[in-house]
Amino acid sequence: MGREILPNVLPTITDLLTLEMGIAVIVEAIPSCVILSISTDDPTLGGMIAEGRSSIHQAWWILDLPLVTLLITVLSFTQLGEGLKDRFDPVLR
Predict the structure, then answer these.
(1) Which of 1, 12, 22, 93 could form a disulfide with 77 if both were Cys (CB 3.0 to 4.6 A apart)?
(2) What three-state secondary structure class fits 26?
(3) What is the Cα–Cα distance from 51 to 55, expressed in whole angstroms?
(4) Global confidence as pTM
(5) Nearest 5°: phi and psi at 35?
(6) 10-residue block means of pLDDT along the chain (93 residues)?
(7) Which pLDDT score, from 0 to 100, does residue 80 have?
């Protein structure tokens, strides 16, 4: 099983897990952004976006930097998944 099935399933599993990590980052940010999450003193991307929304006309960069960070994080997880899928794919070896 370890020699036949696992090498064929491992690329799909790693790709799926890294895609789910990107989705988890977005799912964490959305409730914080619309102020539906529990209030903590820990900074979150959604909390920073919610704070920046109120001052977008005076200081746009307060909203822009957390959004760019969120975008780069999700794209990085996607690219990591694609790279690991290519690395572990037995057909490409």
Answers:
(1) 22
(2) helix
(3) 7
(4) 0.81
(5) 55, 45
(6) 86 92 92 77 84 86 90 95 88 75
(7) 94
